[in-house]
Structure formats: structure tokens, C-alpha cells
């Protein structure tokens, strides 16, 4: 599989949010405003890319050669938690407005199953370090795309005449479902 195929597949075909339904909590919780969604997407992009690279290096250079692969989940979670703490400290210091708007969802990146899922999927697919990093970038870009699109739609829905039974969470879930159906169309693209 080429690096472009891995990237394209991670962004559109196997989008973690819309195809595999991982990372739904921040996707639904932070997608009320485009600016906040873009900030969360940027944070996830940073964490997921670095986590993919670091976990791949640790797995391929330490855990696999030493026959310690049974420790991969624990090691991956520790790496992700450390990266999220770093992002949280930087945002609190450099971008306090974004830090406040992300609120509880920023520490939730640590437990975001999409971030751990990318690392574990790279191990499962036996990706090397470069392929694993490209997969992480693609998955993060897919998350970024999905959350920003959802935020843009939700901003438009605020000014729409929606029946009272569908206002709030129901219309958000319907929108997410329709977005997931739309992304299924990318499954037919072949190279």
C-alpha cells in the first residue's frame, strides 16, 4: 500500500469519526462553533501525529525486538497522556481563550479512542514508522475535516426553522448520520 493510499484512506474512506465511530465525544461536544472545532481539530492533529510517530518508534524499535508487544496498549496510553498534558500546558499559556472554550474536552483527548485506535491500527496493519505516521496524519486530518464540517453545519442550523422535536441533540445526531452516509461514498474510490 502506498503512502498516498494510506493517507487518502485514513482521511476519507476510513474516517475515524464518520466510518469507525471513534472520537464521537469531542466530535459532538466541541462542534458548536467553527473556531472551537478548528482548535480541537488542531490539538488532535498535533497529538495524533506525534503519538503515531512516537508509538511506532517505541513499538518497532523497543517493544517488538524485546518481545514486549503485550505492553503496547499501556505504553501507547502513557505516550498519549504525556502529549495531551503538553498540549494543555501550551494552550493554557499561549492561547487562554481557546483553552477555556475547549474546557473539559481537551483532557478528554487522552481518553479519545481515536488517538489510541490509530496507534493500535498501525500495529495491527504492521505499518513501519513512516507509514504509521502518515496514517496518524491522515486520521487526524479526517477528524479535523469531520469536526469542522459538523461545526459549520451546526452554525447554519442555529438559524434554521427546525421542528421542536428535532431541536438540539436529535438534529445533531441526524446530521452526523447523514455525514457518515456521505463519507461512505468514498469507499468506492479506487486507485
Description:
The protein is mostly helical and 191 residues long. α3 runs antiparallel to α7 and α7 packs across α8. The protein is globular. It starts with a helix and ends in a 7-residue tail after the last helix.
Order of helices and strands: HHHHHHHH
Radius of gyration: 17 Å
The total strand number stands at 0
Main sheet: strands, sense, barrel: none
**What level of helicity do the residues show?**
over 70%
Report mean pLDDT, rounded to a whole number.
Answer: 90
Shape summary: globular
* Count of individual helical segments: 8
β-strand amount: under 5%
Q: Which regions contain 5 or more consecutive residues with pLDDT less than 50?
A: none
Cα-to-Cα separation, first versus last residue: 10 Å
Key attributes of the depicted protein:
0% strand, 191 residues, single chain, mainly alpha, 8 helices
Task: Give a concise summary.
Helices cover 71% and strands 0% of the residues. The protein has eight helices and no strands.
SSE blueprint:
Layout (H helix, E strand, L loop, with lengths): L2 H11 L10 H6 L4 H30 L8 H23 L1 H7 L10 H12 L4 H30 L10 H16 L7
Helix pairs in contact: 1-7, 3-4, 3-6, 3-7, 4-5, 4-6, 6-7, 7-8
